[in-house]
What we know:
BirA Bifunctional Protein, domain 2; Rossmann fold; 2 domains; 7-stranded mixed β-sheet; alpha+beta; binds adenosine-5'-triphosphate; single chain; 13 helices
Amino acid sequence: MSDGASPQPELFDHVVNLCKRRGFVFPSAEIYGGFRSTYDYGPVGVLMLRNVKDAWWRSIVQRRHDVVGLDASILGPPQVWEASGHLTNFTDPLVDCRECGQRFREDSLESGDVCPHCGAEKSFTEARQFNLMFKTQAGPVSGADAYLRPETAQGMFINFANVQFTSRKKPPFGIAQIGKSFRNEITPGNFVFRTREFEQMEMEYFVPPDEAQKWYDYWCGERLDWYVELGIDPGLLRLRPHGDDELSHYSSETSDVEFLFPWGWGELEGIANRGDYDLIQHADHSGHRLDFFDQATNTRYVPHVIEPAAGATRAMMAFLIAGYRTEMVRDEERTVLGLHPRIAPFVAAVLPLSRKAELIEPAQKLFSELAEHFNTDFDETQAIGKRYRRQDEIGTPYCVTYDFDSLDDGAVTIRDRDTMDQVRIPLAGVVPWIQAKLV
Ligand code: ATP
């Protein structure tokens, strides 16, 4: 874990520029002047974001027999948010500067008395609680009130009985979900770190009450390790327990996995011990039983919940920052995104050495073969050195070059992004060679 690394503010601009230049992330509605705090994921960004979510799903659902998946609706009736406590408690303290009219989240102001926008002193209004949920109407002509979910978690709680009954799982077991959430953040910012529309990866792990502490500790460890396994230097990560004054209304214990962003430590994920709060709340409000009957002991109990809740878009930003580097190669600077092969937009790029048809055709055939197994790029433009640099910048771990010798020896050259070493591999061996790197 953290060994005293310091933030690198200059990294922020480099990464944001790269995202725009290479098609990772675009400001939303840019041709109309942009729509603050919303972003669109471009051709390579969408691949990377999917890979981050797939890596999470693989580790949380696919590789475990004790966790099942769910895809619940984004729109929900007020009853859900009343029971969960969001209608009352999901607020941030909002202050206005009387001089310039700008609004701020009071607890985000570095200097409590000075307006960061106009510099006026002691100009803030009294703080008032601002609810972060987006409210809308469902149905035509004075439809029913509805809310866009501010977290995916409630979908798992209100489906507890459906999922438990149909999957026949017994605690400890989990329900996992990936999807969009919406919060009307007072001060969105730092690129995709805090936006009003974002994607979450959350899991509710239901356990017998006396096992809650054990599973809380377990999931704190698992979740920290996930980021390390996907290539983030452990020195850029830490697990920070919440103080009593920080705990959410439902939580008895929470720890954040934090990453050293260019501006300092920031939350990537929270792991919370939510106790039996949510199931009891929804059982009380809905009148439906949300508990578990343990046939082995002939007892009925309300499971406690351990929740690892991560942001997919925020995690992607952390992977981009952690992976970004520049280095000199023979008097020339190259920019590299040292992304783990599982989350890099493309695992491989097929590069025919020349645009002559005799190379393009077999290279395209090789592309089709690779693309059956993983995201593969195909690039026939410009000099090979330029094409390598372009792939380095979007983090492609393996460039496969089809050259004139390939026509005779039936082999290709694979270049490693990080070491720039090259190996010659028979065509039939390319897929297994790359697949072995994906474990
Ligand atoms: P923060 O303290 O940063 O506002 P939070 O503690 O309210 O976050 P949670 O409710 O625990 O966040 O949500 C789980 C995860 O969802 C966060 O760790 C983060 O990765 C992600 N997340 C939350 N809010 C946003 C947002 N506005 N934009 C992007 N990601 C977000």
